[in-house]
Every structure is written in structure tokens, then in C-alpha cells.
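Hi support team,

I'm opening this ticket because the web form for multi-chain structure prediction keeps timing out on my end. I have pasted the exact lines I submitted so you can reproduce it. The total is 564 residues across two entries, so I didn't expect it to be a heavy job. Is there a limit I'm missing, or should I split the entries? Thanks in advance, R.K.
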Amino acid sequence: MFAAPAMIFVGLLIIFPLVWTIYLSLTDSHGSVRAPSQFIGFANYMEVLSDTERFWPAAGRTAYFTITALAVEVVLGMIIALLLWRPFRGEKWVRVAILLPLVATPVAVGMMWRLIFDPNMGFANQMLGWIGIPAQPWLSGQSTALPTTIFMDIWQWTPMVVLIMLAGLTSLSDEPDEAARMDGANAWQRFFFVTLPLMMPTVIVAILLRSIDALKTFDILYATKGKGGGSFHEVETLNIYAYGLSFDYNEYGLSSAVLMIFFFIIIGVMWILTRRKKGIK
Amino acid sequence: MTRRNPALAKRKPFGVRIYKNFRFAALALVVLCLLAPLAWLVASSLKTNVDIYDASKTFFFVPTLENYANVLTRNNYFVFIFNSFWVASASTVLSLILGVPAAYAMSRFTMHRSALVVLMARVIPGISLLVPWYYVFSNMKMVGGFGVLILSHMFVALPLIVYIMMSYFDSMPLELEESAQVDGLTPIGAFQRITLPLSVGGMATAGILSFIFSWNNFMFALVLSGSKTKTLPVAIFDFVSYASIDWGGLMAAATVVTIPIMIIALFTQKYIVSGMTAGATKG
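Hello R.K., no limit was hit. The queue was backed up. Here is the completed structure from your submission:
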């Protein structure tokens, strides 16, 4: 009874749209939302899955973006959390620094990096100039654009991983660590054989939460490269691709098919990760 | 670390000292990497467009508020600021009203399956909902109004609130309500008089986070807002034209969006951290 209003709301806003997306993916709906559409079966899916020009590269970029960002964020996040673990002076300042990127508006963050990485007047190239490295194209280069946006994601979201890891570390009991210390284990051994195994459930949670969001990254990609992920689609992930199909080209049927495939990919990743989590427990 | 075991501390004071210095240097580097870009954003917003292009004025320049004056007077920014505040607060309050009782029910009666449905909302890509919403709402001629924006932002806020409040209620002892019921309160009465007042901290956490997420949300507003209901993240794009970018104005606009949310975050640090890590360690 308490839950009824929320459930109805969620049902209307999630389940109904999901069902509609499935329906749309089986029609040739395009142009205007009021235009009549025809049922065409799985033709959209065939078209999407055989599209090696836009769909598969976008899927590849999504995987590349997610895996790279995630790997760096988890390792960096763990290191920073370990540095922060035991109390020290000035802790408050570090905590503020960690919080600010997290709450900063992603679009504004994208714009900020766009200025810093500007090839002509950006601070990034100025800094490279001081140490004698030639200027890089960063966001404007076809091969450097995606790694540059990954860097932005790392800047904004590593703090999230730090917070999760820190919560995990502080909930650990000191005893296994003390026992290992008594047995003469050094700091590295204690980390790899005591702390890390105990932290594995937290690590998986961090990976789970971050991968959900990294797969769906939209704001910084759109803010830095605009529609279609740049003129050569160099940062076009599945999310950007589906957005473009829906709202730039009004190909609702086709974009719904892309979204359903995207949706199944995400569910699949979540399923694998949660199974892995149970296995560790 | 050293205080707990003086024997070990005495044996390797050198190693400990090195670690302390290393740790200080490493943390200083982390802080620098996280804050410097933001400082850069604010500094650029105080430069003229000429100074932004001038490499000799990287660190030393005469600050000017010209960009802010431009942003706030010429571009209707007060309207966009109001829009953002209105959409974020309305969607937060409505989501709290719907979400808190729902989270309570799910926690107390362990309705894990319905909880799963709500959490699905976190996993689904927003765009797969936007297409059908756009279909329905544009047929109802609601696109461009506040109603549809608030509804769409509630979609982000509600699951977040349910998630945080569930872990909050889970950690609250049942005995309090039970004894209240023994003393003659109905279950709803017990919820209203005992549980709700005790969960103010949790609601603050959930509310602040949902406000931040709504304030920062870009994709929904990009599609569903109209010229009169544009929110700040969308309005930023006014400074990017096809041919050129008004960098000074853009940075001032970006600062205007980011500063209020950062001030809120600074004053409510504890809540934000506990909200973001809610349930993360329990698994």
C-alpha cells in the first residue's frame, strides 16, 4: 500500500516505455511521431546488426571507452583510497577535492576540458610546450578524441570509486591485518594477500556501479564533440548513436532496435558482474 | 599506524618517515589534479576573450566580470537559473513523497522483486525511455512545458531515493515501531510518528543527491525542454555557435551552473558521501 504510488509511477514511466520501444523496434516508424507506421518484423534488427559502418564501430567504442575508463578508475581509486585510509592532518581538504568533480555539472566539465584541450590556445598544449613535447590535437584528432574523453571521465568519476573503496576499507576489521603483521608480512604482502581479497566484494560493487554509468556516457561526449560524436563519428558510442538516430534523424524504428540491443548488452554485463559477485561471497 | 605498535615503529622509523612524505606528496598531487581544472575554469571566466588567446596571460591577467555581466544580462540567464531550480526542487520533493513510503514498504516487507523493478531504472539507458516519452508527450502537446521536465527528472530521482532510503530503513531497528504499536499506534501512525522523524537524516541525503542529479541532468532537458523551460546545462550551448565559440562567456556560464551545486555540496559533504556509498559495502 505504501509502495503503490511509486510502483504505478515507475510502471508508467519505465515499463510502458520499454514495451513501446520493443513495439517501435518492429515498425518502420520515422519522420514525425504522428506519422503512421508499418509493422516490419525484425528488419530493423537485421539492418542494425549488419551495419558495419556506424553500429559496430559505435559498439566497439562503447566497449573501449567503458573498459579503459573502468580499469584506470578502479586501480587509481584503490590507490587513492589506500592513501586516505588512515587518519592524517588535512584530511578535510582532500575530501573536498574528491567531492567537487563528482558534483560538477558534466556538461560544464566537458566545456571546461574543451578549452583546456584546445589545440591552439589550450593549457594542455602549453604545458607540453614547457617540456618540449609538440602540440597534440587532443579532441580534434581522429584517433586522440576518444582517449581524451576517457581522460575526462576518469577525472570526474575516479572520486566515486575512491568513496566506495574508502567505505569498504573502513568497514574492514583490523584483525586480519594485525595478524599478518605479527606473522611478519610486509606492507605489499598484507595488501595483496589480506586487504585485497577482503575488498573484492567492494571492488565488484564499484565496477558494477561505474560500468552502468560508463556504458551510458552521454553528457561529456555531446558537450565536447556535439552531434554524431564529431564529424568523423570519432567518439560516437552506442548511446550517442541511438540519440542521433532518434532525435537528429527521427528514425524511431531503427533507433529503438539499437536501443533494445544496447539494453540487452547492459543487462548481460550486469548479469555477469552480479554472478561474479555472488561467486566471491 | 605507528602509534598502535611502538615496537615496529622503532624498528623502521626510516621506512615510516619515507611513507609519510610519499603519502603527503601523492595526496597533494591528487588534490592538484582534481582542483586545478576547476580553478582553470573559474580563471578563464574572469578573462576577456583576448586574454584567453594570449599565452603570456596564462597565470597573470587583470580579472574582469565582463563575461558574467554578459551572461546574466544579455542571455536571460536568470530565467534559466530559475528553471533549473524549479525543475530540480519540484522533482526532488515529489520523488521524496512517492519514494520514502515505497522504500519503507520494500524494506519492512522485504519486497525484493518490486525493489528490483525500481533499481532497473538505474540500468536502463535514458534514451530508450526518451523516445516513447517524446512520442506520448508531443502528441499531448506537453513537450516544452515544465510538467514533462519534472516528470522525466523524477525518473532519475525516484530510484535513487528508494535505493538510499531502503538501505537507511534496513539499518533502523524494528523494535521502535513494534513498541509503538504495542502502545496503541496503528502501523501508519507508527510510521508517521516514529520512523519518519528518525529518518530525517536519510531523507536529507536522498533529497540533496536527487537535487544535484536533477540540476546536472542534460539529456532529458535537451529533448524535452522548450525555449521557455530551458535549464542551465542546455543553455550553456548558446555560447557554442557553428563558426566560433565565445570562450569567456561559455566559461562564465559553466561557472554559473557549477558554483551553486558545489556550495551545496560543501555544506552537505557528509550526507553526499553517505548517500553515494549507500549499500555499496553491504553488497
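A quick check on our side: The two ends of chain B are 28 Å apart (CA to CA). Let us know if the file doesn't open in your viewer.
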